[in-house]
């Protein structure tokens, strides 16, 4: 079999595209023999100079500008486009279904009791507008109030972060609360969280925020950690590579029927881990618990954030949250233990210190009561799943 040269014009700076590259790499390693050329490619950049001299057999690209589209068409090579922008009409393309993404988001918010749904998008991105349209339609069908904000296009030459931030804060101030906000991607949802923090809007109690792409770096760096829709990028990349392979073998691929994959689900983190609540005393108590549960606080400390008696607070908590304040503190601490066990290699002793337990034995006993497994068993299970 002749070894074919395949170029990848896909940026590596975000989790979505790294997932696509993982899928392409998986296909190339196990199904064929390709010599892959991957260079640094900024989204929206001009066509790279190396295209002028590159001699290859096929290209997988995320075509985000007309300039790159025109240059690639001149090469007259088999290629697959990984962008919904459609700067290369007539070329086979692959993407994640925007309707599926919007359906997951609306269902996630409705399950949590939100009736005010908002979308924050980038008007210069075709897929952002598609997600907005589906989100709005589904919210309206669910008899929810819909709100929308479009930021300055991220790749506009006049883009200025201070103007974007001002527009976000003005919009968020105008929204009713509690409200659930979907960002068109994780980057924009992260900016929404920053604006909420500037305004003192409690997340997720007053504003639940959801992103798209499940870019772990952005989601975990967000404060609070960002919930996100998970696209099946590895499958998209894998099947795009398979499509290119068929084209290089002389098979005809129908460019009018794109390869569209469904999202996998939602990775829930703290930014949507709530129920829609308009009781301000409960909101204050929940916000305090979420921030300080791992500091070994007591219910008495929570009561100081309100003017309620313990009996009144517990009654309202059970009615609105479904748990007592003590149960909520335990849940938050156990969720933090799970994250540290599953995503770090720090010791059980250190985890117990970081989650407010005086002794590791106390933490282990509480964790087993909550999950039915010891911390060690839980960690081994997570590692086994990751390796499979």
UniProtKB/TrEMBL annotation:
Gene3D superfamilies: 3.40.50.2300, Homeodomain-like. GO terms for molecular function: DNA-binding transcription factor activity; transcription cis-regulatory region binding. SUPFAM superfamilies: Homeodomain-like, Periplasmic binding protein-like I. Keywords: DNA-binding, Transcription, Transcription regulation. InterPro entries: Homeodomain-like_sf, HTH_AraC, LacI/GalR-like_sensor, Peripla_BP_I, XylR_PBP1. SMART domains: HTH_ARAC. Transmembrane segments: none annotated. This is Xylose operon regulatory protein. The gene is xylR_3.
């Amino acid at each position: 079999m002749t070894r074919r040269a395949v170029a990848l014009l896909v940026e590596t700076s975000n989790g979505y595209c790294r997932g696509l590259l993982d899928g392409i790499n998986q296909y190339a390693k196990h199904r064929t023999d390709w010599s892959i050329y991957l260079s640094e490619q900024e989204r929206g950049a001009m066509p790279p100079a190396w295209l002028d001299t590159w001699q290859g057999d096929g290209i997988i690209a995320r075509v985000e500008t007309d300039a790159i589209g025109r240059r690639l068409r001149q090469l007259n090579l088999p290629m697959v486009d990984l962008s919904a922008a459609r700067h290369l009409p007539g070329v086979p393309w692959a993407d994640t279904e925007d309707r599926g993404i919007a359906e997951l988001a609306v269902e996630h918010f409705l399950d949590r009791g939100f009736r005010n749904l908002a979308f924050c998008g980038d008007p210069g991105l075709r897929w952002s507008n598609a997600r907005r349209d589906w989100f709005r339609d589904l919210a309206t069908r669910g008899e929810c109030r819909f709100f929308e904000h479009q930021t300055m296009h991220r790749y506009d030459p006049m883009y200025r972060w201070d103007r974007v931030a001002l527009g976000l804060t003005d919009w968020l101030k105008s929204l009713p609360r509690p409200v659930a906000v979907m960002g068109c991607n994780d980057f924009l949802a992260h900016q929404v969280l920053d604006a909420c923090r500037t305004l003192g809007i409690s997340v997720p109690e007053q504003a639940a925020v959801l992103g798209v792409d499940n870019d772990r770096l952005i989601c975990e760096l967000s404060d609070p950690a960002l919930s996100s829709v998970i696209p099946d990028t590895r499958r998209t990349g894998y099947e795009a590579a398979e499509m290119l392979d068929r084209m290089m073998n002389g098979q005809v691929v129908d460019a009018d029927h794109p390869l569209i994959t469904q999202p996998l689900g939602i990775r829930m983190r703290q930014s949507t881990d709530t129920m829609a609540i308009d009781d301000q005393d409960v909101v204050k108590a929940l916000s305090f618990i979420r921030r300080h549960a791992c500091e070994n606080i007591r219910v008495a400390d929570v009561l100081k954030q309100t003017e309620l008696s313990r009996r009144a607070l517990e009654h309202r908590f059970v009615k609105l949250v479904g748990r007592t304040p003590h149960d909520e503190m335990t849940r938050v601490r156990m969720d933090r233990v799970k994250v540290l066990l599953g995503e770090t290699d720090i010791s059980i002793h250190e985890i117990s210190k970081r989650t407010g337990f005086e002794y590791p034995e106390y933490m282990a006993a509480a964790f087993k009561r909550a999950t039915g497994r010891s911390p060690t068993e839980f960690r081994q299970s997570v590692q086994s799943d990751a390796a499979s």
